[in-house]
Amino acid sequence: MDFTLTEEHLMIQEAAREFAQNELLPGVIERDEAQKFPTEQVKRMGELGFLGMMVDPKYGGSGLDTLSYALVMEELSKIDASSSVVVSVNNSLVCYGLEAYGSEEQKQNYLTRLASGEIIGAFCLSEPEAGSDATSQKTTALDKGDHYIINGTKNWITNGNSASVYIVIAQTDKEKGHKGINALIVEKGMPGFEIGPKENKLGIRGSDTHSLIFNDVKVPKKNRIGEDGFGFKFAMKTLAGGRIGIAAQALGIASGAYELAKKYAKVRKAFGTEIVNHQAIAFKLADMHTQIEAARLLVYKAAKDKDTGANYDLSGAMAKLYASQVAMDTTVEAVQIHGGNGFVKDYHVERLMRDAKITQIYEGTSEIQKIVISRSITKD
Ligand code: CAA
Ligand code: FAD
């Protein structure tokens, strides 16, 4: 497979790199510490077209391919995964789903504003008792003729407070199991829709993660995405693409930590020489470089699969599984290479290490990716 980047890809990559250096890096440590949502940075990312990258320009998007999106995710995540997760959720889980499966009215009402970055969205599947086991959700969306009534609680919702539009997956007909689930568009401010407190997290602390509480929230039927009972398939199809975005995020976190570690190893001296001259350190860098390159190829392959219309369930899951492991391994080693300095905030690698962990958990844990992969490779 040819992964040569086009002129356009290189330009987009450079634009994201410059933005990350100039506008994400300043204040990233303070935002992490204060758990401050990157409001200004998100606004700028909207202006740069990063929030609706793959959406057709007629709906306010940038009309780019998935590989461009992966390149941007990688560059942003080298510096600030709290900002890149906003890009990931808005692009992959909100805009993609609406463009692929929404009605024309939904696209006009919501997609145009989401893709241009005027507002941001959230994707609400997980619940206190239904994370990996996503079909066992308890939130209900009862069919009342021309509207649904939603009751229940969603957990861990990224952009939980900063979003204006929420795609909520809920059970309409329990008897039908996953075929009785619907995906509904809920707007902030709808009566009975309450946002719970912000989670105090290990990593991606700038991202606002909240539980959401629904008490008799009335949602018009025209806000249902797709046919009655399509909600679970909608979630699965959307997540398949989302996993490419998170894989690219993991790749970026790993690359960011590796670049910092390599730079540090070339200047820090111990025993009369730069530590890079100690083979134990040089071999760590060799392993990091090799694993990152392998992760990159998996991420680009999954992105290309999506762009060429090939099935990307398998390649996306493999990319996420592998890249998130590489992110964990690489960031731990980057802290090690920095010695004591790695343990303090000023050197950035401890944050990257904390941020890496979430890539093994959200959008399907590593164990869930192995379920997806093993089912895919063993089916007839
Ligand atoms: N595309 C289309 N349909 C799919 C599909 C896919 N990729 N994967 C599954 N389905 C369909 C199946 O075909 C099946 O339908 P049929 O009965 O008509 O064939 C239906 O969905 C149910 O599938 P399974 O029987 O395989 O369901 P399961 O209960 O065994 O669960 C699972 C499968 C893969 C484990 C799934 O539950 C899963 O992905 N769990 C993880 C949930 C997850 O990723 N959550 C992320 C939340 S969002 C988030 O985290 C965002 C963020 O952090 C930023
Ligand atoms: P559980 O499902 O309880 O899993 C616990 C452990 O058991 C895990 O190690 C898991 O891999 C393992 N396990 C479970 N089932 C199996 C099995 N069959 N085989 C082997 N091992 C298994 N969700 C959203 O819907 N929208 C969001 O925007 C969102 N953002 C998030 C942001 C953050 C910061 C976090 C922490 C989570 C977010 N999530 C979001 C939720 C996330 O997708 C879930 O946490 C994740 O899917 C795991 O679910 P769980 O936490 O309930 O863990």
UniProtKB/TrEMBL annotation:
<keyword id="KW-0560">Oxidoreductase</keyword>
<protein>
    <recommendedName>
        <fullName>Cyclohex-1-ene-1-carbonyl-CoA dehydrogenase</fullName>
        <ecNumber>1.3.8.10</ecNumber>
    </recommendedName>
</protein>
<feature type="domain" description="Acyl-CoA dehydrogenase/oxidase C-terminal">
    <location>
        <begin position="231"/>
        <end position="377"/>
    </location>
</feature>
<dbReference type="InterPro" id="IPR009100">
    <property type="entry name" value="AcylCoA_DH/oxidase_NM_dom_sf"/>
</dbReference>
<dbReference type="InterPro" id="IPR046373">
    <property type="entry name" value="Acyl-CoA_Oxase/DH_mid-dom_sf"/>
</dbReference>
<dbReference type="InterPro" id="IPR013786">
    <property type="entry name" value="AcylCoA_DH/ox_N"/>
</dbReference>
<dbReference type="Pfam" id="PF00441">
    <property type="entry name" value="Acyl-CoA_dh_1"/>
</dbReference>
<feature type="domain" description="Acyl-CoA dehydrogenase/oxidase N-terminal">
    <location>
        <begin position="6"/>
        <end position="118"/>
    </location>
</feature>
<keyword id="KW-0285">Flavoprotein</keyword>
<comment type="similarity">
    <text>Belongs to the acyl-CoA dehydrogenase family.</text>
</comment>
<dbReference type="GO" id="GO:0003995">
    <property type="term" value="F:acyl-CoA dehydrogenase activity"/>
</dbReference>
<dbReference type="Pfam" id="PF02770">
    <property type="entry name" value="Acyl-CoA_dh_M"/>
</dbReference>
<keyword id="KW-0274">FAD</keyword>
<dbReference type="Pfam" id="PF02771">
    <property type="entry name" value="Acyl-CoA_dh_N"/>
</dbReference>
<feature type="domain" description="Acyl-CoA oxidase/dehydrogenase middle">
    <location>
        <begin position="122"/>
        <end position="217"/>
    </location>
</feature>
<dbReference type="InterPro" id="IPR006091">
    <property type="entry name" value="Acyl-CoA_Oxase/DH_mid-dom"/>
</dbReference>
<dbReference type="InterPro" id="IPR037069">
    <property type="entry name" value="AcylCoA_DH/ox_N_sf"/>
</dbReference>
<dbReference type="InterPro" id="IPR036250">
    <property type="entry name" value="AcylCo_DH-like_C"/>
</dbReference>
<dbReference type="InterPro" id="IPR006089">
    <property type="entry name" value="Acyl-CoA_DH_CS"/>
</dbReference>
<dbReference type="InterPro" id="IPR009075">
    <property type="entry name" value="AcylCo_DH/oxidase_C"/>
</dbReference>
<dbReference type="GO" id="GO:0050660">
    <property type="term" value="F:flavin adenine dinucleotide binding"/>
</dbReference>
